[in-house]
Amino acid sequence: MRASGISRGLATWIAGLILAAACGGGAGPVAATAGATTATFSPALQAIVDAAKKEGQLDLVWPGGILDGPNELTPQIAGYKKMYGLGDGFKVTFTPGPQMPDMAAKIVQEAQAKQKASTDVFLGTETHFIVLRAGNAVEKVNWTSFARNIKDPSIVAPDGIGVQVQSTVVAFTYNTNKIKGDMIPKTLQDLADPKYKGLVATTSYAAKLDRIASPQIWGEAKTLAWVTAFKKNVAGFINCGEEERVASGEFAIFAFDCGTFGATRLAAKGAPVAFSIPSDTPIITYYYEGVPVNAAHPNAAKLWVDYLTSREGQDLMYGTEIADHAKIPGSKSAADLKAFSSIKFTDVDIQFVDRDAAANVPSSRGKIIGILTAK
Amino acid sequence: MLLLALVPTTLIVALLVISLYLSLRTSVLDPALTLVNYVSLFGDPAAVDAALNTAVFSAIAVGVAMAFGVSVAWVVERTDLAGKSVIGALMTVGLIVPGLFTAMGWIFIGHPRIGALNTWARDAFGATDPVFAVTTVPGMAFVQGLTLAALVYVLVAANLRAMDTSLEESARMSGAGWFDVMRRVTLPLAWPGLLAAALYVLTIAVSAFDIPLVIGVSNRITLFSTYVYGKAFPVTGVPEYGISAAFGAFMIAFGILLGAIYTRMLGRARRYQVITGKGYGPRPVRLRRWAFLAWAFLGAYVLVAQGLPLLLVLFESFQPFTGPPTADSFRTLSTGNYGFIADQLGDPESTIRRSLQHTVVLILLAPALALALSLVISWVVLRTRARFRFALDFVAFLPHAVPPVIFALSASATALFILAPLGLYGSLALLVITLGLSQISFATRVTNSALIQISTELEEAAYVAGASTLAVLRRVLVPLLRPAVAFGFLWLALLAFRELTMASMLFSKDNITLSQETWALIRGGASTQAAALSIVQTAVLLPLVVVYLRYANARS
Questions:
Q1: Are B274 and B67 in contact (CB under 8 A)?
Q2: CA A8, A11, A12 angle in degrees (round to 5)?
Q3: Which of A21, A63, A115 is opposite residue B357, by nearest beta carbon?
Q4: A119 touches A103 (CB < 8 A)
Q5: Beta partners for residue A292, in sequence order
Q6: How many CA atoms lie within 13 A of A358 on its CB side?
Q7: A86-109 pLDDT, tens per residue?
């Protein structure tokens, strides 16, 4: 046995690993350059900036596949630091985390245990922010009192629990090699047709289907009847951001997708996917960002949300996502939406859900998930 | 030393007790004890479904693993097949291929709609039904079985190698053909060892996570591990630790039962085993014209179990988006994903860079912790007359029998609610400690068997010369145990590298690992980048595998 040679080899390999770990350790210089800004801030904003500088760091955790493109986040981080004069030493990390429902549950649980939140900024839709609000897990912020870019109160969630950073049309993503001509679904009702049996993927958490069940759109009875028929066509469950599985042909249709940007991004890479907007249930939904109650760096987080609603942050977002917020002046998505000017979209936001709650309309989500996931 | 040995064993028991305790509470914050979780569990059709699926999945996976693993082990260890050492090496390499790779690869082989096998059957023969559907419980179990076959090979090969061939020789001298020898001599002699191997892989199959996660969840198939994961990270509301823990309670009981049977089987296997030596070397079966058939079998296994999935992952790694290999897709080959990985590795704040750092720490510290604690436990069990020392050994084996998802669930709840002031929640330390504790079962098997082989005379001489227990450990035992400990370290480091279950359950930005990052890329719709990362990981792992193989060969 040549143990000594083997031991040396092992020792060299371990030394290499330690070196690799050591080289990447600590808060090294950030990749993006960010000089100090000469801009002057209002006293309220200056106080937040000063507090953020003291925090010295921002940790972002949300699901991969959304608002996380390397050509999007890296320049956004550089722009963020520059806009508020945070300096090169300010550290920003992004880590792809669990899906939005899982992440919301995690944040609520951390709030209950009075532990630091897993992320400084929570990204989610109205569904997830309602979970956070119910669990007292998200900070109520008076955004317009200090923010440089958040001027339009209509993009701020009730009580300031979040800010809309992106709007998107929810549609059906389909594989253009497998779904052609008359097979392209035009309405939500179409997808209940048996001809789609075994072709459709949906989310196990019934993304947006619960909103369709609102009296503001279809109402519960009609929706549950539709879900019962639709369920027979469902071949499997995928998550938001997994439109690749439609491109691969594993599933022919994804309904609802979580925004047309998924299909648009893939199509730009040459993937055989497109989207179809259901004419009977056209909805626009919003991605919100907010600050969890026990965020480790709440001031840095507030500045991040403010930055993301700036024109610069929005343009960088559009560059990768092919979607920004249609209500923010200069929006490219607003221009894209003009192609669908004949469609009257319903805004699905936190206020939409609150209207149902005010009318004592119970959520149908559990029932829909129960039907979809039952054998 | 006894007190030191009690630390890890107490922690193991504590984690299991906490899991049971959680199963008796509706909420971690509500102190009232209740059986409502058990009532909910029995009333949940999904739980019953998951239990049945797990039973079928485990049975098929073990069957497939044993069929392939034992056959390959027999050919490699008991025949004169030329070049068979290559197969032995490939089987060991198969152990390090993460389940995520295998699952991804098999989607492109056996998916009913896009799998190459089914597409080919449709195009060539007009088949209307899939010839093989990986998206079914038996399909997933087959894939899991193929991956476990490598482990069965490792376990059974040692058994076959150590078996005395004199009885087989006698049977042959009496005119028995090889089939009769196999049926009436070899298998009866080997069966306790085979049964022990089957039980060992059964415990792994029952708690399998990565293949059910990648293939099963999207195809509406829930197994035990994915059910528990789903409850811990629910699509609505807050985590239901209680229901997960209630399911876990049954799995703990099942695991303890399996552990007890395994220990008993191992004892019987040792009784049956006749160590070769004393001038009697094993005489290999001469295959002659059957050698071609043996090579065909081995080649087919390696191709199907390891070659094809790896090739497909390699192909995907050069694609801009995921899809089955077609003539068109060869026109879109690019190295863009590798460029992405390189860029990420160059950025100190990137997730891939950080996950690499965390993984390095994890694969160095978790095995080291496990082996250090195991050495202490083994010493107490084998070198002292302490009361309950065998109970320590049994507890040390429990982490293997109890699914990792339960261990991780308990560790997460403990760190979050019970030991909150320690700041362990979400830390890399929590992952290292939990994984280290779970690795104690394997590590104690290594240190037990190594310590048994060392005569106590050397230690006694040291004691007589006035050495303390610590000095005896440091100056006598540790140097003698070094080869076994190094072997165990390498093995555990490989397992830590591919670990996904605990990494997913205990995930945070501060402890994300490469396997978790690969899964995040897949889930985020960047499967081809995940494929590239997987290929890079394999390339990084190769030096470790080479060292391992050289060590394994040197030891044998």
A1: no
A2: 85
A3: A21
A4: yes
A5: A138
A6: 7
A7: 998 999 999 999 888 889 989 998
Residues A354 and A347: their CA atoms lie apart, in Å, by: 13
CB pairs under 8 A between A and B: 205
Q: Decide if A244 and B526 are in contact by the 8 Å CB cutoff.
A: yes
Q: Do B238 and A112 touch (CB under 8 A)?
A: yes
Q: Point out which residues pair with A284 in neighbouring strands.
A: A169, A347
Q: Which tokens go with A254?
A: 């994804």
Please, what is the Cα angle at B498 between B496 and B499, to 5 degrees?
65
| 8 Å CB contact between A328 and A312 | no
pLDDT tens track for B199-226:
888 988 988 888 998 899 888 899 988 8
Closest CA to B244 of B50, B41, B412: B41
Ramachandran assignment for A283, one of left (phi > 0), alpha (psi -120 to 50 degrees), beta (any other): beta
Adjacent-strand bridge partners of B285: B79
B207 touches B226 (CB < 8 A): no
Q: Which of B45, B234, B509 sits opposite A105 (nearest CB)?
A: B234
Type and span of the H or E element at A167: strand A163-170
- CA B148 to chain CA centroid, Å, is 8
What are the tens digits of pLDDT across the range A302-338? 999 999 999 999 999 999 888 999 999 999 999 988 9
Shortest Cα distance from B536 to chain A (angstroms)?
A: 15
β-bridge partners, A237: A202
**CB atoms B527 and A244 under 8 Å:** yes
Contacts of residue B376, Cβ cutoff 8 Å, sequence gap at least 6: B1, B4, B5, B8
Q: What are phi and psi of A121, to 5 degrees?
A: -130, 130
Cα angle B424, B429, B431 (rounded to 5 degrees) comes to 95
Task: Answer positive or negative: Cα dihedral of B78, B79, B85, B91.
Answer: negative
Check: CB of residue A20 under 8 Å from CB of residue B356.
yes
